[in-house]
Design a protein that fits this description.
The protein is α/β, with parallel strands linked by helices. The protein is 31% helix and 18% strand. The chain is built from 14 helices and 18 strands.
C-alpha cells in the first residue's frame, strides 16, 4: 500500500518569506487557509520586499488557476513544475479553504486572531481526514508553540536554509602541521614570471579543496598560501603576500593576524570578483575592505569609485523621518564608514589642512547608496561594499550581486550572530547563502575572521557577553 502523502498548511509568513514555497513540498499537498489569503491581500501594496513577494505569490496562484481546464477548486490545483522556474519541483496539489468552520469549544474558538483561525482550520482538516497527516508550516515560533500545546503537528519552514548547522559553513581557511608534506609527497614547485612561488600537489581520495581557499602549513613561521587551481587529480597553490609590515601596508593599514592577512590577499586579487568576510565585532572587516578599496581605486586606478551600502535595519527604535538626498538619508546608517575613514585619513604630516584635503578627495570617490534603489542598476568598474550583509534575505543578496557589470568587485561583510531582520536566522541569512553557494566558484573568496583587533575591551566583551 503506497504511503499517504502529507498535507502542509502554510502560514502567511512562509509565503511572504519565500514565494516559491508553494512548489517546495515535492509530492505532498499544500493547503492555504482563507485568513492567509486575506493577510496576503492586505500586504500586497508597497515597494518593500515583502510586498513584492506577496504579489509574486498571487501571480503564481493565478498561473496555476489559468492552467486548470476544469476550474474545480475543490479538487485542488496541480503544483507541477512551472515553465522557467527551475527550483519548482512540487508534484502535489494546492488546496484552498472553501468554507469557514464553525467555532467549537476549543482553545482556538476565538476567531479574532489570525493564528487562532489557522489552528482551528488545522483541527477541522484533522477531523475531516483522520487518516492523513496534516502539518502546520510557519516561521512564527509562537504559533508553532500554540499548535504543539493543542497537540497539532507544526514545523518551521526548512527549505530556506543554506545548511542545517552553521558550524558546517565554509570558513575559507585550513591549517595543517608538518604532516601536510608527509601526506602530499608528490609536489612540484616553480616561480611565475611575476616572481610568485607556486606548488602543485597530487590529490588524495579524502581531499576537499576549494578555489581561493586559504592554507596555513607548519608553525608560526610556516607557509601561508592560497589555493588557485583545483582539478580532479591535482590542486595548485601560491604563496600569499605578507601585509604585516609597514613596508607592505595597504593604505597605511597592516594585517595584525593571519586571517586579516589572507583577507587582504583576497581583497587585492584582481582575479577575484566576489569576496565575503565574516567575523564578530572588531575583527577588522570594514577597515580592511576600505583600505583595499582605496588602494585599488586611488593608487592603482583599478576602479573608478567605491560604492558602499547596507541594509537599513535598526537595532533599537526607529528615529523617524530623515531629510535630505539619498546619500544624506543613508549617512546615519554609515557610522562604520565614517569611523574607519577617520583612521584611514589621518595623515602623519600636514595637520588639519591635509586631513581636510584627503576627506574632500575621498568624498568624490566614495558614494553611499541605498539598497532600496538597486533594481535595474549596473555597476561598471566599481568597488562595491555591502556592510551588515547578514540582515539580507537570499533574494535581496541575489538582487545586489546581479548588479555587477564588467570590472566590478563585490565585497560582502557581516556577522551572522547579529541578525536584526525578522524571520532571518544564521542558517537562512543571505550572507550564509552567498558563502555556501560561491565556495566552488573560481572567482570568489571567503575568510572568517576570528580574532578581535579593535581593543582588548571589545575583544573581551565579544567573547563573554
Amino acid at each position: 500500500m503506497p504511503q499517504q502523502t502529507r498535507l502542509y498548511v502554510l502560514d502567511t509568513n512562509v509565503l511572504m518569506h519565500d514565494p516559491t514555497a508553494l512548489f517546495r513540498f515535492e509530492e505532498h499537498d499544500v493547503f492555504i487557509p482563507m485568513v492567509v489569503l486575506e493577510e496576503l491581500d492586505a500586504a500586497k501594496k508597497g515597494l518593500s520586499e515583502v510586498a513584492r513577494n506577496v504579489r509574486q505569490v498571487s501571480r503564481f496562484i493565478g498561473e496555476l488557476m489559468a492552467r486548470e481546464k476544469e476550474h474545480d477548486i475543490g479538487k485542488g490545483l496541480s503544483l507541477q513544475q512551472q515553465d522557467g522556474l527551475e527550483l519548482s519541483t512540487g508534484t502535489g496539489r494546492l488546496f484552498f479553504q472553501a468554507e469557514m468552520p464553525e467555532p467549537k469549544n476549543k482553545p482556538q474558538a476565538n476567531g479574532a486572531l489570525a493564528d487562532n483561525q489557522i489552528l482551528h482550520t488545522l483541527l477541522q482538516l484533522q477531523e475531516k481526514s483522520p487518516e492523513r497527516q496534516v502539518i502546520l508550516v510557519s516561521k512564527d515560533i509562537n504559533l508553532r508553540i500554540k499548535a504543539v500545546i493543542n497537540r497539532l503537528p507544526a514545523e518551521d519552514y526548512q527549505n530556506d536554509k543554506a545548511l542545517d548547522d552553521l558550524n558546517l559553513l565554509y570558513r575559507g581557511f585550513s591549517e595543517f602541521g608538518e604532516e601536510f608534506w608527509e601526506k602530499y609527497t608528490e609536489v612540484d614547485s616553480w616561480s611565475s614570471e611575476s616572481g610568485e612561488t607556486w606548488y602543485r600537489c597530487k590529490r588524495q581520495p579524502d581531499d576537499i579543496w576549494f578555489p581561493n581557499q586559504c592554507l596555513k602549513i607548519g608553525g608560526s613561521n610556516g607557509l601561508e598560501a592560497i589555493i588557485k587551481d583545483v582539478s580532479n587529480d591535482t590542486f595548485s597553490f601560491r604563496l600569499a603576500g605578507d601585509f604585516r609590515s609597514d613596508h607592505h601596508a595597504v593604505w597605511g593599514i597592516q594585517a595584525r593576524n593571519i586571517q586579516q592577512n589572507f583577507a587582504l590577499n583576497l581583497l587585492l586579487d584582481p582575479d577575484i570578483d566576489f569576496v565575503t568576510l565574516m567575523g564578530t565585532a572588531g575583527t577588522g572587516k570594514t577597515l580592511l575592505t576600505l583600505a583595499a578599496g582605496l588602494a585599488q581605486t586611488l593608487d592603482h586606478k583599478r576602479f573608478s569609485e567605491i560604492i558602499m551600502t547596507r541594509a537599513t535595519v535598526s537595532v533599537g527604535d526607529e528615529i523617524g523621518y530623515l531629510p535630505g538626498t539619498e546619500e544624506e538619508k543613508m549617512t546615519p546608517w554609515m557610522g562604520a564608514l565614517t569611523d574607519n575613514l577617520e583612521v584611514l585619513t589621518n595623515p602623519k604630516e600636514g595637520g588639519d589642512w591635509a586631513r581636510q584635503a584627503t576627506n574632500d578627495l575621498l568624498a568624490n570617490r566614495i558614494k553611499i547608496r541605498s539598497l532600496n534603489f538597486m533594481r535595474g542598476r549596473t555597476f561598471l568598474n566599481r568597488y562595491v561594499i555591502l556592510d551588515e550583509a547578514q540582515n539580507l534575505t537570499p533574494k535581496q543578496m541575489k538582487t545586489l550581486l546581479t548588479r555587477a557589470g564588467p570590472g566590478t568587485k563585490m565585497v560582502c561583510l557581516g556577522n551572522v550572530e547579529q541578525i536584526d531582520t525578522p524571520y532571518l536566522t544564521e542558517t537562512t541569512s543571505g550572507l550564509t547563502f552567498a558563502v555556501d553557494r560561491f565556495q566552488d566558484w573560481a572567482f570568489s573568496g571567503h575568510v572568517t575572521l576570528q580574532r578581535g583587533e579593535r581593543s582588548r575591551l571589545a575583544d573581551f566583551a565579544s567573547s563573554v557577553l
